[in-house]
Structure formats: structure tokens, C-alpha cells
């Protein structure tokens, strides 16, 4: 859309003169002569056919038209300056990109971001949530959180915490003992990789020395976060990571129906080998501190 406006330099001259009440002071701010300011003001007045200043001895006074125009331009230039300052400040800040699974990002990282901002306000975090294994170099990622048995060659690896899995459900589902599970829908998760060490219902029933239901009603999910949401909604009993439902258990939205747990894998923090930047070190240290609170 075409805008019919006077030259920007003339609008700047008007705003400065109106703010200072002086062509001389406006000229000093803009590093031009008072005559140049006068010419710029005259150009706007000719453009609009309106007078914006009354010229008095040693000062100028806004007319009614000038008083209407001035706050619009003042606020506009203030907004320009604020936006430029924010963009410039952001460009100078250091950003650390972390990748983790969808469930881990949403349920473990995001609730803890405030703690990082409090500890390290000078750094920005960018979260790349995906269940795919990301190439750190190609994706521009600084830190990856991987869940598995280890063996991550080519990275600096810091163990984070080992997962424990237990059945949880909405307290309104009226499950009081493991034996009650045979009467309730079980929420199952499709693990992306087939591994006998996966925390599945068959392993938990074996650990609890119970016979699994012959034909249990199942709800299946491909995402652990969705399975947890279904359990909170009272759709069934889910076998999930206790680390990922810590807040729901504390709030009473979920209850752990048995103290019997089975082991999952360990979460690891991976960084590019030899990356000793202060920002990455701050992120790794923060992750370790948060993980220590789980014990």
C-alpha cells in the first residue's frame, strides 16, 4: 500500500523541534543547522497546507495542528527506537540450542526454564523438540539429551539420570492395588525401537509377581506425552516415567498405584567434542542440577 507522507527527515526535524520547543536545540540533536530545521518544517507545512509552529523570540510553540501531530510522531519514533534496540541486543546475545524428545521437552525441560533464566539471564535457549535423532552439526544444535543405554561415541557425554517406570492413574479411576489393574484399561506406548529392556507392561507384571490380564483393554499411543495426558484425563492406567509425571503426582492429578517400579534407560547430555564455551557449560551444569533434585 502506497503511503502519502512527507520525507522522513522532515518528520524527524518536526518531532525534535516540538520536543525541544526550539529549532536550535533540534538542530544540535540532529547535527544540522537551525536553518536546515526551518527548511524541513516549512516543507511539511507546504506538504499539508497547515502551520505547525508559531515562531516566537528564542522559542517556537506548537499550533493546534502541531499539537495533534507531535504525539503521533513521538510515539512512532519511540517505537522505532525500541524495536531497533531490542533487535540489536538480541543479535549480541548468545543462544544455546537443545534438542530432546517431544515428551522430555514438554514435560521436563519446559517447566524448568525459569530456573535457567534466573541463573543465566545472559543466555537464550532454543528448544528443538523431536523424536528423531538429530545431527548436531547439520541442525546447528549445541546440546542433545538422548535416552538410551549409552555408547555415544564422538560426543562429550554427561549422564543425567536413570528412569524408573511405574503405573499411574487419575485418583478418580478408583485403582487401589495392583490386582485392580485387571479390571481397568491399560495405556500402552509404542516404543520406536524394539528392545527387551523397554519398560513395557509385561516386565512390570513380572516384577510385581502378577499374571497380566489375558486380554486387557488397551489404549495405545506413539507419544509418551499423550499417554500421560490420557492418564490424567482418567482414560486408563499408564506405565510411565516417574520423572515426567513428578508434577502431576505432587499435585494429586495422578497417583502411583504401586511402589514397584521397573528400570528404564538413562538420559544423557551430549555436547560436541571439545566445546568448552561458557554458555554450553552453563546449560550442562543447569541440567545436572535439575536432575540431582530428582534423587
What's the total number of strands?
A: 11
Q: Describe the largest sheet.
A: 9 strands, mixed
Give unreliable regions as ranges.
none
Rounded radius of gyration (Å): 32 Å
Give the oligomer, counting copies of the same chain as homo and different chains as hetero.
single chain
Number of DSSP helical runs: 11
Structural category is alpha/beta
In percent, how helical is the residue content? Answer: 40-55%
Shape: elongated
Secondary-structure element string: HHHEEHEHHEHEEEHEHEHEEH
Estimate the strand proportion.
Answer: 15-25%
Describe the protein in words.
This protein is an alpha/beta fold. 41% of the residues lie in helices and 23% in strands. The strands form 2 sheets. Strands 3, 4, 5, 6, 7, 8, 9, 10 and 11 form a 9-stranded mixed sheet that branches. Strands 1-2 form a two-stranded antiparallel sheet. Helix 1 crosses helix 2 and helix 1 packs across helix 3. It is elongated.
Helix-strand blueprint:
Blueprint: H1 8-20, H2 23-30, H3 34-48, E1 53-56, E2 59-62, H4 64-91, E3 94-100, H5 102-109, H6 113-119, E4 123-129, H7 136-139, E5 143-148, E6 156-169, E7 186-189, H8 201-207, E8 218-221, H9 224-232, E9 237-241, H10 246-251, E10 255-256, E11 262-271, H11 278-292
Parallel strand pairs: 3-4, 3-5, 7-8, 7-9
Antiparallel strand pairs: 1-2, 5-11, 6-9, 6-10, 6-11
Helix pairs in contact: 1-2, 1-3, 1-4, 2-3
Amino acid at each position: 500500500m502506497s503511503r502519502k507522507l512527507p520525507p522522513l527527515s522532515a518528520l524527524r526535524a518536526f518531532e525534535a523541534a516540538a520536543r525541544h520547543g526550539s529549532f536550535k536545540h533540534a538542530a544540535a540533536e540532529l547535527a544540522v543547522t537551525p536553518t536546515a530545521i526551518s527548511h524541513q518544517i516549512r516543507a511539511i507545512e507546504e506538504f499539508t497546507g497547515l502551520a505547525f509552529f508559531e515562531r516566537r523570540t528564542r522559542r517556537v510553540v506548537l499550533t493546534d495542528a502541531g499539537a495533534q501531530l507531535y504525539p503521533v510522531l513521538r510515539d512512532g519514533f519511540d517505537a522505532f527506537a525500541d524495536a531497533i534496540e531490542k533487535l540489536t541486543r538480541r543479535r549480541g546475545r548468545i543462544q544455546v540450542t537443545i534438542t530432546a524428545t517431544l515428551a522430555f521437552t514438554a514435560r521436563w525441560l519446559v517447566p524448568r526454564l525459569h530456573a535457567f533464566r534466573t541463573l543465566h539471564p545472559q543466555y537464550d535457549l532454543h528448544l528443538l523438540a523431536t523424536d528423531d535423532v538429530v545431527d548436531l552439526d547439520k541442525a546447528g544444535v549445541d546440546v542433545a539429551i538422548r535416552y538410551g543405554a549409552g555408547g555415544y561415541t564422538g560426543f562429550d557425554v554427561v549422564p543425567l539420570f536413570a528412569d524408573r517406570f511405574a503405573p499411574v492413574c487419575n485418583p478418580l479411576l478408583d485403582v487401589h492395588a495392583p490386582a485392580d489393574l485387571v479390571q481397568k484399561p491399560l495405556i500402552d506406548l509404542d516404543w520406536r525401537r524394539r528392545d527387551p529392556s523397554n519398560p513395557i507392561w509385561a516386565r512390570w507384571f513380572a516384577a510385581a509377581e502378577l499374571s497380566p490380564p489375558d486380554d486387557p483393554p488397551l489404549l495405545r499411543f506413539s507419544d509418551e506425552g499423550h499417554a500421560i495426558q490420557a492418564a490424567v484425563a482418567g482414560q486408563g492406567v499408564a506405565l510411565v516415567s516417574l520423572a515426567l509425571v513428578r508434577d502431576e503426582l505432587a499435585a494429586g492429578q495422578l497417583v502411583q498405584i504401586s511402589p514397584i517400579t521397573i528400570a528404564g534407560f538413562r538420559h544423557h547430555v551430549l555436547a560436541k567434542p571439545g566445546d568448552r564455551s561458557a554458555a554450553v557449560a552453563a546449560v550442562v551444569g543447569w541440567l545436572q542440577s535439575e536432575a540431582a533434585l530428582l534423587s
